[in-house]
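Before relying on records like the one below, remember that each one covers exactly one chain. Contacts with other chains, cofactors or solvent are not represented anywhere in the record.
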Amino acid sequence: MTRPKTKTKTGLTGTNYTATRVRGLAPWRPQAKTAPLIADIKDVLTTYRAYWPLTSRQIGYRLLSYPGYTKSDGHFEKVGEVLNRGRRSGVFRWEAIRDDGLSLGHDLTFDSPADFHDYLNDRANDYKRDRQEGQDQYLEIWVEAAGMVPQVASFTEDFSVPVLSSSGFDSVTIKRERALTIAVRDVPTIIGLIGDHDQHGLAVIDSRSDDIETFVVDFTEPGRFKGSDGSPLTGSVEFVWLAVKPEQIAAPPAGLGLPTAPTGPGKDGKEKQRMGDSEYARTDTVQAEAIDPADLRDIVRDFITDYVDEDIRANIISDEEFERDGVVEKVEALSL
């Protein structure tokens, strides 16, 4: 029997491929053995509807509480592949699942003056004050995984607490810029950190926080730098480790009972420096995406409410509602 010739495809770079993954929106006829996984994923997405979008790994971790699933690289790869094909074929809703995003830079443009007026109306109806105004400190949340940012931001939006992905903070330029932003504030900045509990994750938390703290101290050294109005910089920074901490890894009721995986040896041989003093990091790794979104929400909200003066925030919200009515009225009266 003559075997059929392998079909090849030439890419933009001129490279020939004998096989590629499905492209674009594509029909899908999953194998019968995949049907239980599809059903369980749909159940996870329904259960955690309030926390959309979920990352692929968050979904994979939630499935570990269902019968028949074990934590392994193969498990997460299978979930990722089913989510890929399922979204392309319409089995899963695109807005339910979050991948790491695209950075896009361009000017804001409009189709017409009427389109611009509609945009202004939308923005006027969304008018909000900075609800951290008047507080004794300024809060931020830094999350290691960029894909978790929208979810965590949904926990903080009522408080106007920004959420940043710290995955790019290996850049010394970015660390300097963040430190300068902190230094020019007239109140202390307190930053909650969320990241993986492993050799690399702990080293990242420690090195980035130490580097930025040092930059802030340098910027606020008397006589060294001045603000735009000529006044000295007086900002300060404090970092608070929110997750994943050893006590959260432990089994209930003391902890959250987070799934672990064995720690591999340090690739550069500097295990002590990479692992710090954490006994968990010496034996296990735990990803932040393993935390149940409801538990993660509690961790974030508890951090925020420990610092926020609710009376001050309530006054800001009251002013905001009154001001929004005026902004909407003025925008609606514009003639373009």
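The longest strand covers residues 237-243.
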